[in-house]
Each structure stands twice: as C-alpha cells, then as structure tokens.
Design a protein that fits this description.
The chain is α/β, with parallel strands linked by helices. It has six helices and four strands. It has a four-stranded parallel beta sheet with strand order 1-4-3-2. The model is unreliable at 1-14 (pLDDT under 50).
C-alpha cells in the first residue's frame, strides 16, 4: 500500500509523491493542493464531479463532461473501459482524475460505483503497461471502501 500523500513546497518532493503512482485511491486531504502539485509535476488533471450521479446513466454523463467527450461515446461500462484505455497519453507525464462527490454515486448505486472503480483500476493498469502514470483520487468522505489512501 502506498504511503499517504504529504504536501511539501518542494517540487522535487512533490514529484516523488507522484512517481510510479497508479490506481484508484481515497484522498484523505480534501484540498486543491494535490491538483497543483500534479500540474507542477507535468501531469494533466481533471475533476470528475458526480454530485448529480444517482445511477449509471448520470455517472456516464458526468464522465463525458469531465473528459470533454460526446455523451454518445460513453454509454456503458464496456464503452467507458474502451475509451479510457484508448486515451492519447503522449503529452503529459501523467493523468490525475480527482473524483468529487463520489459518495453520492456510491450511496445511490453501490453496484454501479463498484463497476466504475473497477473500470478506473483497469484503465490505470493499462496505462501503466503503456508506461504512463495515471491515478484516480476519490476526494472527500463517503462510505467505507477497501481503496488505499493517497
């Protein structure tokens, strides 16, 4: 299990916190520092906000908005999985997805939430296999999960 993220002013230390990080994590710190630190390390960051996601369709809408993708391309778990694996990841050094209000989806649709986490975990493994760093951070409080803490 990776060590918890510790914020430091040094870009070198921040870089060490991002090197070789892959997967889905729970973010204990709720601040925006994590996104600033990721950007300083050359990672692209985006926020996935699922405050309105009470079912799979609403989740897919939130994902298509976060990734700036036409909604028609993200219709189910298989299409989301395929799209995430097909991302063009040549430019940034990594991709950080900060998932806000994840607890809304987790509480409203526990099975859908588990499927979403699995799809993101699989995408992070695929990105690692392509020698690209990627992480999804569930920011904030919510139902207990078995995810490691960032």
């Amino acid at each position: 299990m990776p060590e918890a993220f510790i914020w430091h002013d040094s870009a070198m230390t921040a870089s060490a916190n991002f090197d070789e990080r892959h997967g889905v994590f729970h973010l204990a710190n709720q601040g925006d520092e994590i996104q600033h630190s990721a950007t300083d390390c050359g990672w692209h960051t985006l926020t996935l906000d699922t405050a309105e996601a009470v079912d799979r369709d609403a989740f897919m809408t939130a994902v298509s908005e976060a990734f700036d993708l036409p909604r028609a391309l993200v219709t189910n778990w298989d299409s989301l999985d395929g799209w995430l694996r097909a991302l063009d990841l040549d430019e940034p050094d990594g991709l950080l997805v900060v998932w806000d209000h994840w607890e809304v989806f987790a509480e409203a649709d526990p099975d859908g939430f588990e499927s979403a986490v699995e799809v993101f975990q699989d995408a992070c493994v695929a990105w690692r296999d392509d020698e690209f760093q990627g992480a999804v951070l569930l920011r904030g409080e919510g139902p207990e999960t078995s995810l490691p803490t960032w």
